[in-house]
């Protein structure tokens, strides 16, 4: 995928909301149920409070006709408190609660239904290879019942060019959820998402698809050397002007860095070529730094012969493989032990 993406997540914890259900109007007891619980600290629970003595109290909880838990109490005095809890998977559960017992007035029973939402600390699964900005698709998964998502899209000047609040309550946490947006007139430099579950906990995600590769003529180095020869400097001067122009065109507020990638052909050992490409990339980065005017950080890394522009056998002198890439991007274009040659300069 030709985009760089950075994810920044912020998660909030859930609150627990008690709700009182008058289940047993003809029984001298009060039953409280938790309407929303947060795993793993809590589980669904009933609290039973007796107002008068009661014998042979039976409490059963079912879901979709299947028994969840059943408890019996031989004798409870007035003011007794009992708890009944059980395990449950995250999701929205529709429980039926049935109660029976013997009071001073005789046998009595009652039943009711309650909805309990079981949550856990919110997590979002969103991988960069899933995102396709050309078809305007961002798939993700959520581990709790989804609520809604706020999407904000910005251009390179940090101007808001699209926003929407999308209701997700008809979806479940068992399925992949896909976000989309209309075709926009301006290139996208940043996408911000706030993904909420139904408890209003949320995770923030920042997508930075900004990437520009600077066209240039490659510098020719002497064999096994990385010193920039005087007659090669005009090539770097031209690339430098293109780079400065690209930064200016996309605005001073872009969250980006300048990445210099060095590559070699297959002549020599893998290890020697890795060192050679690293030193050449560093030399180019230092040249750009010395000219001044680049306010963004400049990083360099060598890739040796691992990314051949033209596939060749080993020990083949191929000029097109002795190259460098100059990339302006929001995130490192490739995994590497990047060397920070220059940090962000003051304007």
* Structural class by sheet pairing and helices: mainly beta
Q: How many domains comprise the coordinates?
A: 3
Q: How many strands in all?
A: 20
Helix content: 10-25%
CATH topology of the largest domain: 60s Ribosomal Protein L30, Chain: A
Quote the distance from N terminus to C terminus: 33 Å
The second-level CATH architecture of the largest domain is 2-Layer Sandwich
Strand content bin: 35-45%
Our Rg estimate from Cα atoms comes to 32 Å
Low-confidence stretches: 1-5, 9-24
CATH class of the largest domain: Alpha Beta
Mean pLDDT: 87
Separate helix tally = 2
Q: What is the global morphology?
A: elongated
Order of helices and strands: EEEEEEEEEEEEEEEEHEHEEE
CATH superfamily of the largest domain: OmpA-like domain
Largest sheet: number of strands, sense, barrel closure: 8 strands, mixed
Summarize the structure.
The protein is mainly β.
What can you tell me about this protein's structure?
It is a single chain. The protein is mainly β and about 350 residues long. The protein has three domains: about 15-120, Sandwich (Immunoglobulin-like); about 125-205, Sandwich (Immunoglobulin-like); about 210-340, OmpA-like domain (60s Ribosomal Protein L30, Chain: A, 2-Layer Sandwich). It is about 10% helix and about 40% strand. Strands 1, 2, 3, 4, 5, 6, 7 and 8 form an eight-stranded mixed β-sheet that branches. Strands 16-19-17-18-20 form a five-stranded mixed β-sheet, covered by helices on one side. β2 (about 30-40) and β3 (about 45-50) form a beta hairpin. The chain is elongated and about 105 Å long.
